[in-house]
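Exercise 7. Given the encoded structure of a 356-residue chain, write a plausible sequence.
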């Protein structure tokens, strides 16, 4: 079932949490709402679910206006960061709960409930733990139970609010792959809130980047990563070096350095352009070619990890972060305090009005 969010505004006291937000969520897809804390993700999710009422705007489920439809009647499944499972109930009973409390007319028979719960527990790979209590499960297992419980009533929409937020990094990564696979099996329209860009880029079909109550960009993970619409998106989706530069005649001037700008980027001259380069898109050389590189001194080298992280200082005392492969680092034999040249392999230029 598709969801249409149309011109939603939400105000708390004198604070506007959502500002005229419109969004199309395609049926059967896994959409991530990604943004920093306070950007309005949870508020938007709660408005979609019907737990919160917007001050303006409308939510449509499959073309049907949901204003006035109670949360309970919207057929949404919810998984929160701290989904309190019923502590006094077994895993099995937690998952069965939503079915047991259905009105008699629509409540499945005991045998059907049993089959359904077993099916769900096996879907979330907990089929042998049905008899345990929540306190006997790990955090990751508990969130899988929460998901099975949300799915038991066959929701038309699944809403997940930072479901893995309280788990440690390794478990988060495991669960994120698991959720992706699960979604490929069940294809229920899902909205997944996270502030973790890696999580959003890995899990989602489509990423909605939010900032201060607005949507900055909507696109596939590829789109938003490789074609960021705004400096905010570029910044938020990974580490980045920022250089303030002057642009004239298709070239950017930064201190003594001159850079040729990519074709198609920047049509007009300006004294206040921002050049963004990701650390892995900077290379280091010993010789300057007189153009497209910047003199800098190495001040820190960190070799622990899949890539070598190098911090440098430019003549203007800007800090520059570079990442190169271990092999390349060994070939270059770089040393701390050495003076070298930094060369962007790719750069993004934004002016104040965000044109690229
Ligand atoms: P996110 O989930 O992206 O961290 P939220 O949607 O929870 O952001 O909150 C967005 C902003 O709205 C925050 O500044 C938050 O303090 C504010 N806010 C959210 N809910 C309420 C509320 N019930 N009353 C007052 N302010 C709220
Ligand atoms: Mg939130």
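Solution.
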């Amino acid at each position: 079932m598709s969801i249409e969010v149309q011109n939603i505004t939400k105000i708390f006291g004198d604070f506007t949490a959502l500002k005229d937000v419109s969004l199309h969520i395609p049926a059967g897809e896994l959409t991530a709402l990604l943004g920093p804390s306070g950007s309005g993700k949870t508020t938007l999710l709660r408005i979609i679910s019907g737990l919160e009422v917007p001050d303006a705007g409308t939510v449509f489920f499959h073309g049907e206006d949901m204003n006035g439809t109670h949360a309970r009647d919207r057929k949404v499944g919810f998984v929160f960061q701290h989904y309190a499972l019923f502590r006094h109930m077994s895993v099995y009973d937690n998952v069965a709960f939503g079915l047991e409390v259905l009105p008699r007319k629509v409540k499945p028979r005991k045998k059907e409930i049993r089959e359904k719960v077993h099916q769900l527990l096996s879907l979330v790979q907990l089929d042998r733990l049905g008899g345990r209590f929540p306190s006997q499960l790990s955090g990751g297992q508990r969130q899988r139970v929460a998901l099975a419980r949300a799915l038991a009533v066959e929701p038309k929409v699944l809403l997940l609010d930072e479901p893995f937020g309280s788990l440690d990094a390794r478990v988060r990564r495991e669960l994120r792959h698991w959720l992706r696979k699960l979604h490929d099996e069940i294809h229920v329209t899902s909205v997944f809130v996270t502030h973790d860009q890696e999580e959003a880029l890995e899990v989602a079909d489509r990423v909605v980047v939010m900032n201060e109550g607005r949507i900055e960009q909507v696109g596939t993970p590829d789109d938003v990563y490789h074609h960021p619409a705004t400096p905010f998106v570029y910044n938020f989706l990974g580490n980045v070096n920022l250089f303030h530069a002057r642009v004239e005649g298709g070239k950017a001037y930064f201190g003594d350095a001159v850079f040729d700008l990519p074709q198609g980027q920047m049509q007009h001259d300006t004294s206040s352009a921002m050049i963004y380069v990701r650390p892995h898109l900077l290379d280091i050389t010993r010789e300057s070619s007189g153009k497209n590189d910047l003199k800098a001194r190495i001040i820190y080298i960190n070799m622990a990890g899949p890539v070598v992280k190098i911090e440098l200082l430019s003549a203007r005392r800007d800090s520059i972060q570079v990442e190169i492969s271990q092999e390349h680092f060994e070939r270059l034999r770089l040393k701390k305090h050495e003076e070298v040249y930094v060369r962007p392999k790719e750069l993004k230029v934004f002016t104040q009005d965000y044109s690229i």
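Remark. The first strand starts at residue 3 and ends at 12. Students should compare their own answers with the one above.
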